[in-house]
Amino acid sequence: MVVRTVDDYLAQLRALLPPGPAWDREFNPGVDQLLQAAAEELAREDLRAVALLAESEPATVRELVPDWERVMSLPDPCMGDSPSFQDRQLAVRRRLLEVGGQTPAYFVDLAFTLGYRQARVVEHRAPRFGRSRFGSARFGTWGAQFMWTLETGPRQAAGSRFGFSHWGQSFGVASNGALECLVSRSAPAHTLETINYG
After folding, report:
1. How many structural domains comprise the chain?
2. DSSP 159
3. Is pLDDT above 70 for 133?
4. What is the tens place of the pLDDT at every residue in 80-105?
5. Does residue 129 belong to any structural domain of this protein?
C-alpha cells in the first residue's frame, strides 16, 4: 500500500479545485489553509490504514495484542504471571500459526523460539537383540524407549547482562520455566522427557 504524504494530498486537492477566481490562492488564502488541514487529516488516515493492516497480521501486531489475547484465551499460563510484551506477541503468533506435533523437530523449534539456538533432542534407545553391544556406554533399560532429552545448548541470547539491561530486569534471566511448561504440556503422554540446560 502506498502511503501518501501531506504534500501529495495537498497537490491532489489543489488539482481538484474547480477553475475560477473564488478558488485562487492569491485572492482567497483561506482556501489554501483549508486544503492544508484536509491534506494533513488525509495523510494521518493513510498512516492509520497502514497501521490497521499491520495489526491484522500476527507477525506485526502491536496495538491489538490484548484483543488477540482475549480471542485466543491468552496469556498462556506457561509464560508466568507477567510476561513481557515480546513474549505476548510471540504467544499470539504461536497460537494462531502453530500446528503442533510430537516430533523431535517440533520440540527443537519450540526451544529455538524461546532463544535456545543450539537445542537438539536426544532419543534414548532400549536394548534390543541385534542392536545392543556389550561394553557400549548407556546400555539402557526397556523403559528407555519412552525417554528423551531436550538439550538446550548455551543460555539464550536474550538473557540480561550488566550494561545491556533496563531497570527492574533480572540478570541472567532465561525462560526455563516457560520452556519446561511448554515441553511438558506438548510431550506425548507415554514419554518421560528431561531438559538439560547448557
Report:
1. 3
2. S
3. no
4. 778 888 888 888 888 888 777 889 99
5. yes
